[in-house]
């Protein structure tokens, strides 16, 4: 197979991958993705040993050990566009030779867990709940650029959602992708976490049905989303990355899911006064669940 051209997979002077500034040996097989760069340092404060610390733009990485388990924590910044960068570069680090730019015969599988903040659309999933995305519905469009996206998407779910939530014809077509069942089962504890469908939006305001000064195209969409059911599935929350992570992971052969702390409840108008101590609890819970 022809090597990938330098314009398509850009590397830096030191041979590291373009945006993440990482070399293959910098990356652990267990990856934790977070949006906020300051969350990387907070998570690493639980590590007994730090191996590397690298950053470029909003992409900060710390690789270290938690209870003897090697992990890389990486910030993605905000939004699914950054997920396209991070997932492609993570996959390149393990499955493409960065010197020859040839795709490796032997593929590696990464375990990827995003720890994020999120807004609940369900009145009975209050602020400070922990929510695991067993499925994500992307309204961002990123996955649609990749061939065979429809093979890993649930078209019946998408059609039912479009119809019942009166989805605007000019908005991107939602894509429904399942997370890794193995990781979801590992992270879920009855009575501690809530499992469900997460909506991945490509914006925080209009795309999540928030109105400040500008009126929006689908003013009643959040009520419809909260009422929507598909079999046993129910939409629980909004954030901005999980569908692109789950979808690209599925196409690339990696395992991925997302666990979020609810910091706003859209159904009753609540917002957390101080979510940071609760985020620490979610991080402790997630780290200990991953090693069990
Ligand atoms: O707290 P993080 O991980 O950034 O996640 C959520 O917070 C950001 C919006 O405020 C988006 O990235 C959203 O997905
Ligand atoms: O409502 C919210 C809260 C956090 N992050 C989001 O994307 N939406």
TrEMBL record:
Catalytic reaction(s) noted? uridine + phosphate = alpha-D-ribose 1-phosphate + uracil
Q: Name one GO biological process term.
A: purine nucleoside catabolic process
Annotated Nucleoside phosphorylase domain ranges read: 31-274
Give the record's GO CC terms. cytosol
Q: What is its EC number?
A: 2.4.2.3
Q: Show the GO MF annotations.
A: purine-nucleoside phosphorylase activity; uridine phosphorylase activity
Query: What name does UniProt use for this protein?
Result: Uridine phosphorylase
Question: What is the organism of origin for this protein?
Answer: Butyricimonas faecalis
Q: What is the lineage of its organism?
A: Bacteria, Pseudomonadati, Bacteroidota, Bacteroidia, Bacteroidales
């Amino acid at each position: 197979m022809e090597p990938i051209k330098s314009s398509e997979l850009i590397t830096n002077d030191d041979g590291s991958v373009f945006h993440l500034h990482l070399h293959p040996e910098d990356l652990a097989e267990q990856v934790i993705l977070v949006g906020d760069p300051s969350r990387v340092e907070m998570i690493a404060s639980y590590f007994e040993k730090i191996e590397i610390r690298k950053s470029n733009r909003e992409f900060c990485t710390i690789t270290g050990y938690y209870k003897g388990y090697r992990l890389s924590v990486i910030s993605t910044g905000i939004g699914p566009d950054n997920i396209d960068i991070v997932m492609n570069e993570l996959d390149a680090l393990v499955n493409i030779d960065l010197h020859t730019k040839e795709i490796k015969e032997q593929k590696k599988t990464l375990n990827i867990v995003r720890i994020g903040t999120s807004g609940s659309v369900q009145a009975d999933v209050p602020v400070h709940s922990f929510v695991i995305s067993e499925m994500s519905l992307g309204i961002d469009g990123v996955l649609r650029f990749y061939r065979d996206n429809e093979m890993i998407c649930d078209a019946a779910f998408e059609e039912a959602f479009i119809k019942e939530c009166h989805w605007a014809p000019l908005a991107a077509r939602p894509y429904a992708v399942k997370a890794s069942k193995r990781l979801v089962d590992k992270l879920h504890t009855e009575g501690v976490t809530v499992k469900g469908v997460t909506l991945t939006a490509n914006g925080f305001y209009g795309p999540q049905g928030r109105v400040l000064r500008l009126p929006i195209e689908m003013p009643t969409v959040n009520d419809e989303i909260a009422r929507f059911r598909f079999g046993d599935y129910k939409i629980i929350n909004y954030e901005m990355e999980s569908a692109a992570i789950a979808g690209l992971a599925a196409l690339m052969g990696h395992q991925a899911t997302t666990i979020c702390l609810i910091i706003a409840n859209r159904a009753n108008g609540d917002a957390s006064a101080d979510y940071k101590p609760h985020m620490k609890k979610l991080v402790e819970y997630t780290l200990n669940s991953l090693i069990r």
